[in-house]
What does this fold into?
Amino acid sequence: MEPRIDLMANETGARISKRFYNVSLAVQQSALSRTVQELVSLRVSQINGCGWCVDVHTKEAAAAGETAQRINLVAAWRESAVFTDAERAALALAEEGTRLADAHSGVSDATWAQVREHYDEDQTAALVTLVGLVNAANRFGVITHAAGGTYEPGMVAGLAG
It folds into this structure.
């Protein structure tokens, strides 16, 4: 699969990408833990089939100290014993918020209640925003055929500006 366009090599694409990244900084700098951010980002990217984003989030999770076992089990988190109740609530929100077309009701009241049980207002705002941002980033990657495999931890941080 050949990339269709390198958005960072295009003037308009680079401006948009930098602004998109700067929006994501608010989530990164929130009280939502880095672990939850990477687990959620990885799960959303897996669902959407974005190779570039799966590459980014597996490597960033590992760089942040996440274990290989937990990274490998994100795709089967419901059938795994390695995630906390709070992480499970965040992963459920990530799945339901990503699979909107698959579930006419969107995010269930039960999932929302679990999220609110474990996360305060600011963390919830960051979590909801993260799910939306990662879904958008996945669309960029899938549409442009951005392939995974070449990412090095910290590369995305170079977009700030």
Observations:
- The chain has a mean pLDDT of 92.
- The two ends are 31 Å apart (CA to CA).
- The chain has seven helices and no strands.
